[in-house]
Design brief:
The complex is a heterodimer of chains A (407) and B (205).
Chain A (H helix, E strand, L loop, with lengths): L45 E5 L11 E7 L2 E8 L7 H7 L5 H6 L6 H16 L5 H30 L4 H21 L8 E2 L2 E2 L7 H23 L3 H7 L7 H6 L5 H5 L6 H4 L20 H25 L20 E9 L2 E9 L7 E5 L1 H6 L2 H5 L4 H11 L3 H5 L1
Antiparallel strand pairs in A: 1-2, 2-3, 4-5, 6-7, 7-8
Helix pairs in contact in A: 3-4, 4-5, 4-11, 4-14, 5-6, 6-11
Chain B lengths: L1 H11 L7 H10 L11 H10 L22 E5 L7 H10 L5 E5 H6 L21 E3 L6 H16 L24 E2 L4 E2 L17
Parallel strand pairs in B: 1-2, 2-3
Antiparallel strand pairs in B: 4-5
The chains are: A alpha+beta (407), B alpha/beta (205).
Chain lengths: 407, 205
């Protein structure tokens, strides 16, 4: 391999001090979307930069929106404000050292990120996690899905104007689950818990009983939440028929996860790939009909109930035994040359890792397929024709985490 | 000391004696309004700190303002990338004095785990003055509350006159700092030499 002649040039960004103005020069928005029939109207349009510091962009994300009155006629997402060079850092470090970095990808659900990565390396090396480890992975994965969806719904309602209360209820439940994670792994958010061929440490004494109690209390929260919100007229008016994503577009754009299922496509990797031990559990896949913001909200609530059902079954049937494959090697791992793609149904969609090994102690190529980024590509199609206030809740219903979008 | 005893005695009689400076600091330290501004992972813990369990409202700091014009405190919660750094400095410049900065988490202090990255700023203290640093990746919400209490102590100790008076009442001290530009390979300048004084590394011979 030859050394680069010059260091890579940083991406272009507007010079600081740029003043956003009336969009007379529309060339900045020239792109594939300009082929759309009708084109731009003749009168003056207003170009607004939503973000990167904006309370409703869920992190540092910018949308350059062109408005005709209050209506959105163009929307250009601008990424990269949280590009932390995850892939490059992982290629420089050992296989084991990449696990804590995966925690910080989608920083709300660290457990599922760990899981997708160790599963990829297991495919590469052939390690076989024991039964108990698979159960623990399913349990922590579904707990992650529970609080991810709860927080998402809380944030979504915050964006709609229900300040405080729904998010506070969601975070109350999240804290209970984080307590479980803390007693399990020692950290609240960045668990760094999974290892190749298993998990890092066994469940502490009494953990299963505590988890059972959290799972048993969770439906009460869901019922309360739904009684407060689901039938609420303001929520219905704000969310129904807004940001419709058609089935065809969702499939063509590669959208996955709850967003795809809200559009009525029954595609869930837990059923399709049958990875880990999911075939042993009895659960349903909720589907939406309209693909609007309300369906995406409802899908999350229904998925939480299905996750609870998986959790109940897993916590009742978890076997005793070892937690790591005895053949597995953690430090100084040098897989044979080859490549592997592992994917799981993360709370936000299909999270995939593609790792190429050349036999050296660090991966030759490390690539992440982040669900948030791919789901975000259809943002403009969902927002066109809606008002700027709806853009905020459409973005909220996509469920993005910028750590994962920009990596 | 005798002042303190006399004060306590008077307080028992229902008479409160204070000085202008103390009253001013007392008011300011109990109503710190943070800027609602999250960069990365630490922002989630910052939100958790403002929720029911940790309840930042106990310290008078629950009013998160989306506009920098209404904020007193910037909590730099998360990784500052080189693309984001100019906006962070600009937000800081837009805040009115007196203003304070908490660098929350390893990334905001030094780049943290992402320090090797080509797009990560190695600490926000290169461009804006930081009052309190919180280590951790991410710090727990309790750590943020501790930092807030440390900041309250700092505000409490401010004097209104003398050589040690804080920046916001010294007319010669700057309240805005230059915003870095995007250069060919890095931010230009890559740090503000007037602000950035890293601890000297003692090299034993």
């Amino acid at each position: 391999m030859t050394a680069l002649a010059e260091p890579p040039v940083m991406h272009e960004a507007p010079p600081s001090g740029t003043i956003w103005r009336l969009a007379e020069d529309r060339s900045s928005f020239a792109g594939p979307t300009d082929d759309r029939a009708g084109g731009l109207p003749d009168h003056d349009l207003l170009e607004v930069a939503l973000g990167p510091h904006h309370p409703s962009t869920h992190g540092v994300f910018r949308m350059d929106v062109v408005l005709d009155g209050e209506e959105v006629v163009r929307l250009k997402p601008v990424f990269g404000y949280l590009h932390r060079n995850h892939e490059k850092i992982a290629e420089k470090n050992s296989y084991l050292a990449a696990i804590p970095y995966t925690d910080r990808l989608d920083y709300i659900c660290s457990m599922t990120n760990n899981w997708a990565y160790v599963m990829t390396v297991e495919k590469l090396t052939g390690f076989q996690p024991p039964e108990r480890a698979e159960y623990i992975r399913v349990i922590v994965g579904e707990l992650t899905r529970l609080f991810n969806h709860a927080c998402l719904v809380g944030f979504l309602l915050q964006d709609m104007g229900a300040l405080g209360t729904p998010l506070m209820y969601a975070f109350r439940e999240r804290e209970k689950i984080l307590d479980l994670f803390e007693s399990l792994s020692g950290a609240r958010m960045m668990c760094n818990y999974m290892r190749f061929g298993g998990v890092r440490c066994d469940l502490p004494d009494g953990w299963i009983e505590e988890a059972k109690q959290v799972v048993a209390e969770f439906p009460r929260f869901l019922d309360e939440f739904e009684a407060l919100l689901t039938g609420n007229e303001i929520l219905l008016v704000r969310s129904q028929g807004i940001g419709v994503l058609s089935k065809e577009l969702a499939v063509n754009a590669g959208v996955t996860g709850p967003m795809l299922r809200a559009s009525g496509v029954g595609y869930d990797l837990r059923k399709v790939d049958k990875y880990s031990i999911y075939p042993r559990f009895n659960f349903r896949i909720p589907l939406g009909q309209h693909g609007d913001v309300f369906d995406r909200y409802m899908i999350r609530l229904l998925e939480m109930r299905e996750s609870l059902s998986i959790l109940k079954q897993a916590l009742d049937t978890i076997p005793a035994g070892p937690i790591v494959d005895p053949k597995a090697k953690q430090r100084g791992l040098r897989p044979k040359a080859g490549e592997a793609y592992g994917r799981i149904e993360a709370p936000k969609g299909e999270l995939g890792f593609y790792v190429v090994s050349d036999g050296s102690p660090n991966p030759y190529r490390f690539r992440i397929r982040p669900p948030s980024l791919i789901n975000l590509t259809v943002l403009e199609d969902m927002c066109l024709g809606h008002t700027i206030a709806d853009v905020v809740i459409i973005l909220g219903s996509v469920d993005i985490v910028l750590g994962e979008v920009d990596r | 000391m005798t002042d303190e005893i006399a004060r306590k005695e008077l307080e028992k009689q229902g008479v409160v004696i204070t000085s202008m400076g103390e009253l001013y600091n007392w008011g300011r330290k109990n109503s710190i309004w943070p800027l609602q501004f999250g960069l990365a992972c630490c922002a989630i813990e910052m939100i958790a700190a403002s929720m029911a369990r940790f309840d930042i409202a106990r310290f008078g700091a629950e009013v998160f303002r989306p506009s920098p014009r209404q904020a007193d405190l910037m909590i730099v919660a998360g990784t500052v990338t080189k693309k984001m750094a100019p906006q962070v400095v600009r937000l800081y410049n837009q805040m009115p004095e007196p203003k304070y900065v908490i660098a929350m988490g390893a990334c905001a202090i030094s780049g943290g785990p992402f320090k090797q990255g080509y797009n990560v700023l190695k600490g926000i203290d290169r461009f804006i003055p930081v009052d309190i640093f919180i280590p951790g990746c991410p710090p727990r919400p309790e750590a943020l509350l501790d930092a807030l209490m440390a900041l309250q102590k700092k505000i409490e100790g401010d004097t209104l006159r003398g050589a040690n008076r804080p920046r916001h009442i010294r007319p010669d001290a700057p309240s805005e700092f230059p915003i870095p530009e995007f250069g060919e390979h890095d931010l230009v300048p890559d740090k503000n030499p007037a602000l950035f004084h890293p601890a000297a590394v003692l090299l034993e011979k």
